[in-house]
C-alpha cells in the first residue's frame, strides 16, 4: 500500500451511508438531495445522449459551457473571467481541488486548511506531497468565526496556499467581509495562493455569498472552484469547474489533463442550459432549503440536541450533549434509524468538536419529517 494515503482509510461518507443502508435508516449523513433538478436540464442531457454527444469533450470543456460559467460569475458577482484561458471544466469540484493542489503546490510546502475542513482537502494535500497546517474556525455566540490570529501565526516561509471553503461544509458558516478581508490581506502580504471552494455559493440563507477572488489583490492569486452538483441537484453528474488567472489555471490544467483528461460530455450542455435558464429554479431551491434548515434546526432542539446556527450549505451541526459524536453517529442507524456524520471526521484536533454531529437537511419534507420523528422517539 502507498503510505502517503494510508492515514485516510475509507471516507466517512462511504462508511455512514453503508451503515444507513444496512439499517434502513433515514440518511441525514451524506449531503446529496433526494429529488431531481430542473426538468428541462435533465431533458437536455437525454437529448445530448440521443443525438450522439458521447465522445471525449474538448480538454478544457465545451466552449459553450465555459461561456455560460463566465456569464454566471459576471451576473452574480460582477467578476470577469476569460472563457478561453481562465476557465476549466472538471470532473466535479473534487477533481478541481486535487488538480489545483497537484498543479500548484510543490512537495514539501505547506497548505493551510480551516478546521473543520471537507475531507478531500487533506488527501489532496497528501497526494501533492505537501503538509497540511490547520487553523480553527471557532464557535462564538453568533455561530462560527475564523481565528484570524491563528491564521496569521500559521503562515511560514513554506506556506504555498490557503484553502477557504465558504459557504462552509460542515458548519454552514458563511464567511463575512471581515474574515475574507483578513485572509486576502494575508495572502497578498505573504504572496500566497488561495483555493476558494464555493460549491455551496448559491445555497445561502441569511447573507449573500462573497467570492474572495473579488477582493483587492486576489484576482491573480485565487483559484475558485465550484460545481453544478449542489446548484442543480445533480451531485452524480460531477460537472465542476475552476476559474483563475491564466498562469494559475495553466497549472491546474497541467495536472487535470492526466487525472481524467476530460469528463461528463453529455452533461456539459445540460449544465450550460441550467446556468442560463434556471435562475428561478435555483431561487426556489434556496427558499426551500432555508425552510428545511429552519425545520431541522428546530427539530434538533426539540430532540434534546443543541444545534448551531447554519447560514448556508446543506448542513446544520449540533452538539449531542457530552457524548462522543463518533460513537453516537455509528450507533445512531441501529439505535434510532437515522444517520448523521461526526464532525471529528473533518478535523485534526478533536476538541472542541468531539461531541458535534452534522445533519443534512437537503431531503424531501416527508423524509426530513420521518428523520425528525425517529430522532425524537
Ligand atoms: N467541496 C465541498 C465543500 C463539498 O461539500 C463537496 C461535496 N459535496 C465537494 C467539494 C465536492 O464536489 P463535487 O461533488 O462537485 O466533486
Ligand atoms: N459533499 C457531500 C458531503 O459532505 C458528499 C461528499 C461525498 O460523498 N464524498 O456530505
From TrEMBL:
Its cofactor is pyridoxal 5'-phosphate. The keyword Transferase applies. This is Aminotransferase. InterPro entries: Aminotransferase_I/II_large, Kynurenine-oxoglutarate_AT, PyrdxlP-dep_Trfase, PyrdxlP-dep_Trfase_major, PyrdxlP-dep_Trfase_small. The keyword Secreted does not apply. Gene3D superfamilies: Aspartate Aminotransferase, domain 1, Type I PLP-dependent aspartate aminotransferase-like (Major domain). One of its GO terms (cellular component) is cytoplasm. It comes from Tessaracoccus aquimaris. It comes from the Bacteria.
